[in-house]
Each structure stands twice: as C-alpha cells, then as structure tokens.
Recover the amino acids of this structure.
C-alpha cells in the first residue's frame, strides 16, 4: 500500500511536470509564430524613393559601412548591410516588361526586420533572434556559420564572411563596434546599439534628403505611423508572408 | 571481430591504400579551407550552399534506404537475408558518417558545432536533423554489431536488439523526411517549397541506396567469395526498379505543376535548371543527362532478362546511382539559389580544393564501409550456420567426385643415384641439386619416372 502522503507527493510532482512541459511546449510553439507584441516598441522604416537621390549620393551606405566596419569586397564574396539594386531586382513581383525607366530606379534594400522572420526560425543555435522591439539580431560569437538563415531569408539580406573580413578593412572606422571573423553571417542590425542610446540608425541620420524615416510602429502619433496611414507604401515580396517593416514610397510619375 | 579486416589480398590492400590517399589529399585541402575560410570553395553570397550540402542530402538518402530495404526482410526471413542486411547496416553507418562530415566541413566555424546542443532550438529543423542523424548512426552500429556477434556465438538476437531493429525502420524514414523538411519549409526558395519534396527524396533514396548495396554485394561475391544470395539481390533490384519509377513519376508531377501553373517563384528555378537563363546554363547538360540516364536505367531494370544478368544489373545500378547523385546535388541544392533573391543569376561551380575535400569525405566513408564489410564477410565465412554448413558439405562432396574423375593416377619418380622416391618431378630435382650437386636444369639425368 502506498501511503496517502506518498501518493500526494507523486501525484503532485507528476502534475507539476505536466504543467511545466505544457508551458515549455507553449514556448516552443510561440517560437513558430512570433506574435506582434503590443506593449513594447516596434521599430520600422520608410524608404521614400521620391526623395532618395540615388546612386550619386550613397551617404547612408557610407555611414553604415563606417559605423559597422563593413569590409569592401568585390565579387562573389561581397558583403552589404544596406545597398542599391535596381527596382526590378528589389520588386520582381511589381515589374513587367513594359515598365520603362522605372525598372532601373536605384532602390535601397536592407534587412526588413520582418515581423515573422524565417531566418531566426531556422537558426539551430539562436545566433540570430528577434528582440522584443522587433529588431532581428546577430550574435557573432554563437553563429556556427551553417548559412541556413541565408537560405531562409527571401530578400537576400544576409552576407557570409567567406574569408577573414579584417584583411579588407583599411582602417577600423568605429572601434566601438566589433569586427567580424571569417565563417559567420552578418547583416543589418538596425543599429540597435544606437537605438538603445536614444539615437537614430546611422543611415537615417546620414541621409541629407530625409528619404529615410525611422520610428516606432506601435506609437500611434509617431511620424512613421502618420505617414504609413496617409501615403501608399509597398513592401518587398509580401507574398512571402514575413511582413517586412521596411516600407517603400514610390516616386509616382516624378522620375 | 575487428582483426578480420586486417587480412586481405593485394587487391584489398591497394584499394585501402587508394582510399587513404584520397583521405590525405582531402585533409590537406581541408587544412587550406581551415586557414582561409570557405572562400576557397565556389560558393558565393548568392549560392551559399554547394557541393558539401548536396552530398549531405544525397547520402542521407543512401543511409536511410540501405536499412529500410534490408531490415524488414531480415525480420521475416532471418537467414536468407542476413548477409544483405548486415551489408546494408554497414553501408548506413558509413553513409551517416559521411553526412556528419559533410555538414562539418560546410560549417564556417566548425569548432562551435556543439552550440547546436548547448542552445537547443526546437524551432529549427536543423536541430532535429542533428538529433535524428546521430541517433540513427548509433542504432545501426548496435544492430550490425549484434547481428555479427549472434552469428559468432550462434544464438538468436535478443529481444532488445529486435526492438531497436523495429525502431530503426521508422527512424530511417524520419532522417530523410526531416532532411527534406530542412528545405521544403523555406518560403524563400520556390524550388524547394513543395510538399512533394519529402516523398521525392524518399523515392530517389530508395533507388540510389539499394543500387549501391547491389553493386557492393556483387563486388563482394566476385572478389571476396561472399554470396549474399541470388534471391536477396533480386528482391533489392525489384525495390530499386519500383522506387526509380516512382521517383520519375514524382519528377513529372513536379514539372507539370511548375510549367502548367507558371507560378513565377517556382518557374524561375526550374527554367534555369532545365533550359538556362539570361545566357547562363551550366547545369543544363547535367540535369538532362541525369533524367536520360534515369529513364534508360529504368527501362533496363524493368525487363527481367537484363535485371537478372549480373553485369547488366551492376551497370544499370551504377547509372541510377549517378543519375540520382546529379539530381540531388546539382539539380536540387544549387538551382534552389538561382536566380538569387534579388533575381540575378550568379552561377556556381565547385573549385578543385572543394572537390578534393568532398572526395576525401567519400574516401572516409568508403574506407569505413570496406573495413566493416570485410569484417562482416570474415565473420560470416568463419561462423557458418548449420544450413550453410550442410550446403557447403554437399558442395564439397560434389567437388571431390569431380576431382576424382579429372586427376590421373599418381606418378612416381625415383632418383637413380640413391633410389629415393618422389611423387613430383620438381621435388626430385630439388633433391638432386641438394644431395648430389646436379643442376636443376639437367636433373633429367638422374630423375626417372618409375615403371
Ligand atoms: S529581411 Fe531577411 S534577414 Fe531580415 S528579418 Fe527578414 S528574413 Fe530575416
Ligand atoms: S549561419 Fe549563424 S545565424 Fe545563420 S542560421 Fe547558422 S548559426 Fe544561425
């Protein structure tokens, strides 16, 4: 016969076990569908192509390169966090053969810090993950360089260090920001270090034409929310269902 | 058990030496990659997985199918399929080892591979793949080991090994399914995002893995006097045939959906693969070769007369193996990245060092398979079952009868100088040289046939 006490202890711990594993399961399930958090900030950005000066300017790209010590590598090992591509390359679904000059429009692309990032979902080590405020982060000490995240990102926002990037740095322009080693993936991290200090991302700050508008998507009276409510904006590959947070305003008939 | 792998003829040792050479060249190339980084490969920002992951994918299939084919028959009909099963188990062990090595050489920071366990991420398919692959390697080593030792001690395998055997079958299917999910769950890659990917993987695996098994079995029969049995080979050949037909059918389904629906995300990759794009078409001849070889081999396998002819069977199996290797490697992983995510075409081709590293990994796998297979053959030959003993005795009897008819009545030679008697002319000559200092060439002076 088991005593009443023993029964209670066993039963109780079994119950606790079930509840515990249920909560863990919930956590695991939540990872599959990162929910939009209501309370904290959600950072987003508008790229206003009607104001962007295009290839002649590059202020934002230069600022980013300097801020994050990004190596300049030509050819197939190239690394970028923010760059220009042609409109038809950034928005293949919105292009057709008869579209004229618009096809060639220089379009800034960067990591979209998607609401539902497939890249963080697939990472086997959580070396890339999503912060509360929606920024998709990278841990260069944890990344094993499997490049699964590169396969998963529908926007080509991630670059890999095929060789030691430091040999391509003429100087370390920002000693406060880590340089990377060979064998890890890197990408735009929305200047989380600057945001945490209350500053704007380097590219936004550098833009002389106010073409980049950065702000909190969860704040109703933020400039970005107002613009998103009034202007018509598009995002890259909406069909992928990742819900990008980089929005584009097109130069309707101006260019 | 292991000492059985250390006995072998010239052919065996030169094969081992060749494999060791492959491994050494691979190691040397890998040391370059270790220092410089994955930049020594043909991969790029646009095509970020290449030869390594392609081989990994292919070999997962080989590992899975070699076991699934052989094990069930083993459970129902132990002794007839025992040899084939053991070969299959060891093939699986070798293939899983290669899989793990291919993942390792593909990592940018291989020293951190344990992060997968330190920071378990149940939302990543790669995490599950890691678990099922390691588990699978373990099960197969256990099963094969117990089959061999039960043979030595002449006992039935114990119940817990049977449990593992039953477990290994769904497990084998799971490793390939999980590996397919690795790709088919990615919204970014239209070519891979199809529910048909896992079934297609399985079908092609069931054709490629057993093909290799058949080739290995026939080699073992030719060169090691180790016969897995006509029946076992024919059973496996039938499975290969069915699997290859299903594989081609699945490919047809995929092509229909892609080209009839014209869905751009899917169409782009397949167009590049089959017809080339923007003037680029490195993979075009390869994929057509793969499809052509596959169809040709199936036609060969369907007809019983070609399937039952050993040489033609090996040929057809080799064709299937090559066809599926191209299909999994060049035809699946690489075009999944072309066109890129910004719709540009950046092509991929493996570099020499990359190829050497891949060959080195194959060298390791083949070495493991050869050594383990050799061991198994040794055990089977030294510890025959009662049925086999009976068979062997019958064969011996027959041989004796034949010998009696062939050998003529024995002759005898005598040495003229001392009268010694020999059964062999050579012996007599040697004797003459030693004892009487008469050169061998002229020993006919003293050695005469008796009578
Ligand atoms: S753009 Fe790519 S890298 Fe950035 S969050 Fe989305 S999926 Fe991840
Ligand atoms: S490359 Fe690094 S960040 Fe990307 S999935 Fe692998 S471990 Fe994660």
């Amino acid at each position: 016969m088991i005593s009443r006490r023993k029964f209670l202890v066993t039963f109780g711990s079994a119950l606790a076990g079930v509840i515990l594993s249920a909560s863990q399961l919930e956590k695991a399930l939540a990872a599959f569908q990162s929910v939009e958090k209501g309370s904290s900030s959600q950072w987003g950005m508008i790229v206003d192509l009607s104001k962007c000066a295009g290839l002649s300017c590059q202020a934002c790209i230069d600022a980013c390169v300097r801020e994050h010590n990004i190596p300049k590598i030509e050819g197939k090992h190239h690394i970028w966090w923010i760059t220009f591509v042609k409109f038809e390359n950034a928005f293949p679904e919105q292009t057709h053969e008869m579209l004229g000059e618009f096809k060639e429009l220089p379009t800034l692309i960067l990591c979209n810090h998607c609401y539902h990032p497939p890249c963080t979902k697939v990472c086997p080590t959580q070396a890339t993950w999503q912060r509360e405020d929606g920024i998709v982060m990278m841990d260069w000490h944890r990344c094993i360089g499997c490049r699964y995240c590169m396969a998963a990102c529908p926007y080509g926002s991630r670059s890999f260090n095929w060789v030691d990037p430091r040999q391509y740095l003429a100087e370390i322009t920002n000693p406060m920001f880590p340089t990377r080693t060979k064998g890890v993936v890197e990408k735009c991290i929305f200047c989380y270090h600057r945001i945490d200090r209350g500053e704007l991302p380097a590219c936004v700050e550098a833009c002389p034409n106010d073409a980049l508008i950065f702000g909190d998507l969860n704040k109703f009276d933020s400039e970005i929310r107002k613009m998103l409510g009034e202007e018509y904006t598009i995002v890259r590959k909406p069909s992928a269902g990742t819900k990008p947070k980089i929005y584009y305003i097109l130069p309707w008939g101006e260019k | 058990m292991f000492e059985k792998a250390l006995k072998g003829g010239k052919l065996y040792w030169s094969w081992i030496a060749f494999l060791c050479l492959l491994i050494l060249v691979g190691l040397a190339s890998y040391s370059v990659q270790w220092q410089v980084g994955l930049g020594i490969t043909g991969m790029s920002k646009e095509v970020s997985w290449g030869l390594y992951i392609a081989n990994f994918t292919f070999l997962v299939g080989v590992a899975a199918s070699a076991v699934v084919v052989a094990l069930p028959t083993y459970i129902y009909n132990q002794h007839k399929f025992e040899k084939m099963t053991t070969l299959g188990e060891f093939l699986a062990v070798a293939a899983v080892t290669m899989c793990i090595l291919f993942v390792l050489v593909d990592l940018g920071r291989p020293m951190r591979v344990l992060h997968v366990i330190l920071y378990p991420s149940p939302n990543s398919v790669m995490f599950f793949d890691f678990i099922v692959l390691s588990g699978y390697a373990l099960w197969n080593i256990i099963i094969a080991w117990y089959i061999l030792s039960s043979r030595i001690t002449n006992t039935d395998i114990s119940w817990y090994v049977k449990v593992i055997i039953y477990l290994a079958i769904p497990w084998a299917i799971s490793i390939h399914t999980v590996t397919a999910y690795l790709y088919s769950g990615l919204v970014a890659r239209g070519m891979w995002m199809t529910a048909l990917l896992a079934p297609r993987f399985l079908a092609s695996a069931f054709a490629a893995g057993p093909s290799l098994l058949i080739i290995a079995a026939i080699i073992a029969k030719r060169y090691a006097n180790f016969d897995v049995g006509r029946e076992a080979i024919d059973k496996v050949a039938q499975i290969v045939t069915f699997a290859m037909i299903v594989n081609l059918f699945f490919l047809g389904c995929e092509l229909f959906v892609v080209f009839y629906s014209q869905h751009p995300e899917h169409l782009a990759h397949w167009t590049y693969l089959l017809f080339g794009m923007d003037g680029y078409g490195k993979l075009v001849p390869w994929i057509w070769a793969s499809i052509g070889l596959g169809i040709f081999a199936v036609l060969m396998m369907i007809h019983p007369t070609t399937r039952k002819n050993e040489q033609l069977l090996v040929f057809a199996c080799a064709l299937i193996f090559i066809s599926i290797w191209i299909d999994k490697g060049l035809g699946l992983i690489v075009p999944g990245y072309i066109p890129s995510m910004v719709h540009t075409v950046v092509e991929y081709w493996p570099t020499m060092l990359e190829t050497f590293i891949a060959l080195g990994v194959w060298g390791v796998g083949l070495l493991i398979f050869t050594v383990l297979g050799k061991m198994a053959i040794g055990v089977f030959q030294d510890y025959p079952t009662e049925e086999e003993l009976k068979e062997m005795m019958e064969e011996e009897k027959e041989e004796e009868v034949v010998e009696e008819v062939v050998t003529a009545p024995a002759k005898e030679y005598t040495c003229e100088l001392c009268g010694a008697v020999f059964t062999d002319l050579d012996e007599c000559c040697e004797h003459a040289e030693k004892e009487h200092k008469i050169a061998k060439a002229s020993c006919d002076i003293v050695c005469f046939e008796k009578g």
